């Protein structure tokens, strides 16, 4: 890592939908592949809706690998963040976060962040460096397309 390497990336956008609807699309893992801007998520079983810190949800990736996502931040309708890990393993330290700021009953500002400042797994660094604000914005744009329809 270089001294000036950016390890916290984020993107924001306003979505013309209520915060509750947008949050539901994020907090229900079965919905996430519908709007994933990284084309990385294949599927998640129904019934894994996140309810709080400590929840773990499983996601199958497009390469058939499974990730257990450990929820470390949660505020219903406002914030959710998780640390992905291989099944049964400790998370290697990269965090995905969603923050929602209701602007009105029908508008919400969504900020999507990827923080890999604590990533310890050397083989994941190339992929972490490839995660750009544009890729995060792509997820928000796809999320908006689903929420606004």
Automatic annotation (TrEMBL):
It holds the Pfam family Polyketide_cyc2. Coiled coil: none annotated. This is Polyketide cyclase.
């Amino acid at each position: 890592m270089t001294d000036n390497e950016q390890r916290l990336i984020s993107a924001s956008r306003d979505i013309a939908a209520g915060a509750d609807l947008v949050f539901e699309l994020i907090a229900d893992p079965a919905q996430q592949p519908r709007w994933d801007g990284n084309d990385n998520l294949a599927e998640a079983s129904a019934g894994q809706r996140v309810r709080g810190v400590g929840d773990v949800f499983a996601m199958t990736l497009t390469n058939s690998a499974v990730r257990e996502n450990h929820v470390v931040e949660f505020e219903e309708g406002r914030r959710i963040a998780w640390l992905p890990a291989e099944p049964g393993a400790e998370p290697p330290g990269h965090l995905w976060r969603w923050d929602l700021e209701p602007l009105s009953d029908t508008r919400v500002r969504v900020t999507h962040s990827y923080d890999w400042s604590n990533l310890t797994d050397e083989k994941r660094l190339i992929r972490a460096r490839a995660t750009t604000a544009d890729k995060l914005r792509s997820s928000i744009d796809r999320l908006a397309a689903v929420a606004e329809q």
